[in-house]
UniProtKB/TrEMBL annotation:
Belongs to the pyridoxal phosphate-binding protein YggS/PROSC family. This is Pyridoxal phosphate homeostasis protein. The lineage of its organism: Bacteria, Pseudomonadati, Pseudomonadota, Betaproteobacteria, Neisseriales. Residues 28-227 form the Alanine racemase N-terminal domain. Its cofactor is pyridoxal 5'-phosphate. It comes from Conchiformibius steedae.
Length: 228
């Protein structure tokens, strides 16, 4: 077995252990393999090993890979997990299945407008800036509901949940941000019953994220290796 497949199995085992420790069913946690900076061939290898969900940050890089993989990986599910500039929204609306980084009404409207009607609705998570850092993308926790109300009224998108990238400096802070996300999701679910997704957890904080209710973990380095 090559390294990528072995790494993937290790991550799946970590998810399994974290889920059991949290009293959760591991089936409720979906692994998104984050391939930024790595070649399409690596994604194809993982696809052949059974991986279907892949995340990408940079639209141009993603476009090249998506083109390469279109024929060989027909069931591949693309998740956009990087900031989307308005002028890049069309390819996302046309070719992605999920956007984890919705951060404005304007972007939501564009994505809905540009989503081809023959495709299922684009699945959206609102990115939350859990650290109140102005350097980060995402909306403030107290702005989530306002944006959710706008998104819920749009025709070709489906609001599925929330996503965050916590501040990485210490575990205590990270866990506090995960707890905030769990509470925000619970609030959103009171109003919107289709909301079921908490996208959080990366290579270094996967277990804590699962403990706090993550349903999608976005794993790069633990599968692909370190980025140069
Ligand atoms: C790069 C990235 C990941 C994966 O991070 P790793 O530490 O490599 O697991 C997850 N989410 C986002 C938004 C990223 O940019």
């Amino acid at each position: 077995m090559n390294d990528l497949s072995a790494n993937r199995l290790k991550v799946l085992a970590q998810i399994q252990m974290a889920a059991v420790a949290a009293g959760r069913d591991a089936e409720t946690v979906r692994l998104i393999a984050v391939g930024k900076t790595f070649p399409a061939a690596d994604i194809a290898t993982l696809y052949r090993a059974g991986q279907r969900d892949f995340g990408e940050n940079y639209i141009q890089e993603w476009q090249r890979k998506a083109q390469d993989l279109r024929d060989s990986c027909p069931d591949l599910v693309w998740h956009i997990i990087g900031h989307i500039q308005s002028n890049k929204s069309r390819v996302v609306a046309e070719q992605a299945a999920w956007v984890h980084t919705l951060d404005s009404v304007k972007l939501a409207r564009r994505l809905s407008h540009q989503r081809p009607s023959h495709l299922p609705p684009l699945q959206l998570c609102i990115e939350v800036n859990t650290s109140a850092s102005t350097a980060k993308h995402g909306v403030a926790p107290n702005e989530v509901m306002v944006l959710a109300d706008e998104v819920a009224a749009l025709p070709n998108v489906c609001l599925r949940g929330l996503m965050c990238v916590p501040t990485a400096d210490n575990r205590e802070q990270t866990v506090a941000e995960f707890a905030l996300m769990r509470d925000l999701l619970a609030g959103l679910q009171q109003k919107y019953h289709q909301v079921d997704t908490l996208s959080m957890g990366m290579s270094d904080d996967l277990a804590d994220a699962v403990a706090y209710g993550a349903t999608m973990v976005r794993i790069g380095r633990a599968i692909f290796g370190s980025r140069s």
